[in-house]
Fold these 2 entries.
Entry 1:
Amino acid sequence: MAKSFFRKFAKRIFIVSNIFVALLFLLGCYSGYFNPKYFWFIGFFTLASFYLLILLIGFIFLWLFADKKLALISVLAIGLAWKPLGQLLPLRTTPPFTLVKHPSHLRVMTWNVEHFEILEYKKHPEKKQEMLNLINEYQPDIVCFQEMVAGDSPKAINPLSEFTSRLGMPYYHYAYNRKLDFDDNHHFGIIIMSRIPLLSKHTFSYEPNNYNSIFEFVDIVKNGDTFRIVNLHLQSMKFSSGNLSYIEKTTEKDITIKETRSVLSKLRTGFYRRKTQSEHLKKELNKSPFPLIVCGDFNDVPNSYAYTTIGKGLKNAFADKGTGIGRTFYSISPTLRIDNIFVDEKFTVEQYLRVKKKISDHFPIIADLYYNKPQ
């Protein structure tokens, strides 16, 4: 009798746990519809959605051996999240990336270049060269760099003229706030570089006019069609080296209230500030008279509020042609796909690539795009 009671009790615990995980998973997948001002905590479930999916799959296998009909809890949750799952984890086989680009395609790259390793220029000058070689290997038509450090000064370690000549991209638009300069000889900002002449250049900024409230866009003409290219860098979590070490290496014995509060506070601030930034940017995107290509470091994962807000009415190149998890930031967690290329629905994403080389703290991503003219 005691054995029977224990089995019933354990079964109920597993059922409640399965339902709880399913609800958290659904909240995480649909967090883009919840205002982070009031529901900022749902952002944690979005960050954890891949792991919650693994737990749901685990429950399916558990119930297949214990009580098959209860596997429907997980199956139903996964089914209800099928559309956002396509953004999170597209499962498909993809052919190898073709280096030779079709003349009618537009090849776009976005990369958080982490200052182009300017702090390493004395000890490891080869890092910058390796980054430039990587870019030249793929010969993009347009590149969008975030955390760009360059300058016009003759004393500059990273002169702009070097990048334009060595990358074969004479056209560029560099957006930065002089109050946030890297040093006396270098700016710190975001830049769009192009092999194609720029029809126009624009910088959009709003209060407090800091790095994460400055966006840029340019217009180009390709095959007789005009496109608007947007470059952005949304609010990062601003984790210190101590925070990162705490997140990556903490065991139960190492958990402290002070460090936990610090990490949670920065996560909350990041969720809220990206909400504001994405809403400001989306207003500008909606004004565009031309088909859009939106690139950058979102500092947020698929199905988040910022991702959903900016991506509304657009399609994501990775979701369209990528496969697997596709992480673009190689620290903290293997699920952090925080760099994106969104494009107008009229574009066909011909191929997509994440270049898995640890030179910056982000992996560059590339997409070949073809514009299907309306009939």
Entry 2:
Amino acid sequence: MKRWPLQKAYFWETAPFFRILLPFAVGILCYDRMWLAMPGMAMLAVVCVAFLLMANFIYTQKKNFPALFLLQAVIMFSGGLTISHFSDVRNSRSWFGKNVSDSSSFLVRLIDAPAEKENSWKVPVRVISSIRDGKVSPVTGDAFVYLYKDRFPVLLHKGDTILVPGKWQPIKNAGNPFEFDYATYCRHNGLVYQQFCSPDDVR
């Protein structure tokens, strides 16, 4: 008994969800690598409305599936950009990183116990206020404070609130070849700045 010849299915036919996942992942990658600048919210709204009008036109024109698939890919790509934009702490209006060059001191709260390093104590903190010229402004964001070791132990605990100077520095990689991208890892976890200071600078 003869059978019809079997045609091998492509990967995107056996896993149709991959068609949606791929452009979404490309949108996240483009934002993460800064290959595309994220437009303002007004421009984003205009683009979304234009996509909806295009979808309605394509649906009424005898369901043009290739064009509909292309439109779906563009929407998912834009969705990846948008989600990355809103999850990036640097885009928050209240992020303390927008005032690091202006404020003289910052009020921070320890979100974990200090971790002992070779020459310092690593203190993860949450910035809650910036102080400039006696004016206190509420801010948000997490950071690392490194306290140099001296002859006295660090008497700080999780939940303590301290005042630190505005000596913030961007978190950078060591510059070794093929090293782990620590700066990007921290940025994905909402950590962009750190500072090194002596215990005498903390109140």
